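== Sequence and structure of one protein ==
=== Format: two labelled lines per protein ===
==== Data for this protein ====
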Amino acid sequence: MKQVTIWIGALVVGAVLGILGIAWLDDVMNFVATVYTRLFQLLAVPTIVLAVITTFATFGSKGSGRIFGRTLTYTLLTTFAAAAVGAILFVLVAPSNLPQLGEANVAEMLPEEAQKLLPHSGEAGWGLHILSVIPNNIVKPFLEGNVLSLLLLAFAIGIGLSKLPDSENKSVVVKGLLGLQDLLFLLIRGLIWTLPLGIVAFSAQLSAQVSAGVVADSIGKYVLVVLGGNVIQFFIILPLFLLARGLNPIHVLGRMMPAVLMALFTKSSAATLPVTMESAEQRVGVRKEIARFVLPICTTINMNGCAAFILVTSLFVMQNGGTPLTLGTILLWILISVVSAIGNAGVPMGCFFLTLSLMSSIGAPIAILGIILPIYTIIDMVETAENVWSDSCVCAMTDHDLR
């Protein structure tokens, strides 16, 4: 609560400083905002790559039998569904742009190589776009910050490591990657500690250009899309999955309510895991060998709420940067959101920082995320509850299928 209060205070201070219209103060705020943008860009590539690699690399130690196959299948289906619901709501609600920010086309402002991240119209454009995603040099995607190429590499390396037989060499590589990730998390925590200063700068930048009424309308619709998508996924989509497998969603949700409520207030799937396992075994009747195998995996990779947040927030930020949101672009970012959400486990501030990293890497106007940050705590509560409910559904369906 203390942290949220500080963030809101920083937001208000920044807004006031921006409204003052003092030239030298605006220059200082622009400088500070640029510093934070560069720091986020610095951490963007390793955050995305290491998160995805280490998550997929652990698959090998989780086993690869029928249980894991069912778990992974249901995880992918529910996560894609969550992202798709978010995309549909975004198109229907159509949050408006913040003034000024949407006038310049970000695609024209990006370096030539960075433009390859954005889909082009026409068959030839899409062909070139697909080719640009497939790297011919392992170093080049890192230097360019090409998100799609990096995700492809990270996915391939992570799955490759999971398939390697256990050996000292494999152990050294995995431990080295985990060590780098721990170091990265330390840097991220340090950056987050100083983040109120960045929020002041981002808020000052925006308030110097926009009116409060337009901001409230635009951000309000954005929040409506995010929370509305979570509610639809929670009460409609996931119950439909259970009904399709012959399970009573009201019964399962009632039995799993202790875990869902704990997730809502702790905002941590990992902290809720013991309660989730106990509820699944003792209250729902899931077999211990299933619950104790499926739920730890789901806590790591089953991120319905995160996928929806990454997608909706990315679309909102890119739209404000002038990126045309074509059907192809939305479908592409659904895929990116799902893969990123699965690789999100362990990242401090979870999908918020991962979204920020993705937006930084394509040059989108990340100052908008400074406005979203103070309300992210509420979003995070709902998302975590949805994630634990989804974990419970996957566990119940897997147990039902293998009986």
About this structure: The two ends are 44 Å apart (CA to CA). The first helix runs from residue 2 to 20. Confidence is low (pLDDT under 50) at residues 101-126.
